[in-house]
Design goal:
alpha+beta; seven-stranded mixed β-sheet; four-stranded antiparallel β-sheet; 10 helices; globular; binds ligand 2P0
């Protein structure tokens, strides 16, 4: 049995549309930062004796996605063994915080190690993508690009986590699961939004600016391009039929708060994914002021703080926050040792 801890990621340039629905290849490039403190722990135990998979630690819809992923994993690698999977995250799942990214990055890595497959990171990313597109970016640490490549797609690290100490503050405004998941949301946007093609075209332009800004460690280059990319993704989604509006009143209050901070000369920029939380990018000493301003915004439940983080890692023991996921396992661990 192995335990893997993988980190979530936030896209500075967003993935919102597929070129290939089945294989989950993107229609446009995206670029994310892997976060050091929003993590999922996954354990996998493969057994030839079990007749079915056991998935613990996820609500039913997410559990079905994991079940489908296990089936794909078996057929891809010709493996018959059934899996016992335990999952735990240290942040709200299914609420626009990319829990599927950390979940499938952790699970892909844990399955590959548990099955003793000799695969490189590119193959692990390829596997993670089958669970959730954005998960392929969480297979690497630091700043990571995922782009269409021929008939498929390629994932490539742009800079490691020590390159730039960007701060990512997450203003949590709701811990309820979102009403429309990302896969369905992006499909609806592609099929019904009149702005979808403009959105896809603008992604390539934003990517060039954000990638150059990351290399130069320039918040004043990365921030404006990331914020406009977010607004364009949401503009395309809002124009879908029926409209996809992921924002709550508190989401808009935080957006306005970030704009006020900039008017006062404090550099901060926001991004929002398929949920009501707001991710705010800042750096250095101003992070304290930004964090206090976000925490004081009406409707903000709490503020999480992150910096660029690592690739998935094998751990001997689950972290303390995953202890509940470990509990049912204790007797068999004792028996095995
Ligand atoms: C992103 N999101 O780039 C964008 C921005 C949400 C908004 O990647 O269908 O859960 O499983 O590939 O990876 C969320 O999409 O979707 C996502 P599927 P996924 O981070």
């Amino acid at each position: 049995m192995v335990w893997v801890v993988a980190n979530s990621n936030v896209a500075l340039v967003k993935y919102w549309g597929k070129a290939d629905e089945g294989a989950k290849h993107p229609a446009a490039p995206s670029l994310s930062v892997t976060l050091d403190s929003l993590s999922t722990a996954a354990s996998v135990e493969l057994s030839d004796d079990s007749k079915e998979d056991r998935i613990e630690g996820l609500p039913a819809p997410a559990g079905e996605k994991v079940q489908g992923f296990l089936n794909q994993f078996r057929s891809r690698f010709g493996i018959r063994a059934r899996a016992r999977v335990r999952l735990a995250s240290n942040f709200p799942v299914a609420a626009g915080l990319a829990s599927s990214a950390s979940t499938f990055a952790a699970l892909a890595k844990a399955l590959v190690v548990e099955a003793s497959l000799d695969l490189g990171d590119g193959d692990v990313a390829d596997l993670a993508r089958m669970g959730s597109g954005s998960a392929c970016r969480s297979v690497y640490g630091g700043f990571v690009e995922w782009r269409p490549d021929g008939a498929g797609s390629a994932v490539e690290p742009v800079a490691d986590k020590d390159h730039w100490r960007l701060r990512i503050l997450v203003a949590v405004t709701s811990e309820r699961p979102k009403a429309v998941g990302s896969s369905a949301g992006m499909r609806r946007t592609a099929e019904t939004s009149p702005y979808y093609s403009s959105w896809i075209e603008s992604g390539a332009v934003d990517l060039v600016e954000v990638r150059a800004g990351i290399r130069a460690r320039s918040l004043s280059r990365v921030g404006p391009a990331a914020e406009r990319n977010c607004m364009r993704m949401h503009a395309a989604a809002i124009a879908a039929v029926p409209s996809l509006l992921y924002w709550e009143p508190a989401t808009i209050a935080v957006m306005r708060r970030v704009w006020e901070l900039r008017e006062r000369g404090i550099e901060a920029y926001f991004s929002i994914d398929a949920g009501p939380q707001v991710k705010v990018f800042c750096e250095g000493e101003s992070a304290k002021t930004v964090e206090a301003a976000l925490a004081a915004t009406p409707g903000v439940l709490r503020v999480l703080s992150a910096e660029p983080g690592d690739a998935p890692r094998l751990v001997a023991h689950p972290p303390a926050w995953a202890a509940d996921a470990q509990a049912p396992q204790r007797p068999s661990r004792a028996a095995a040792s």
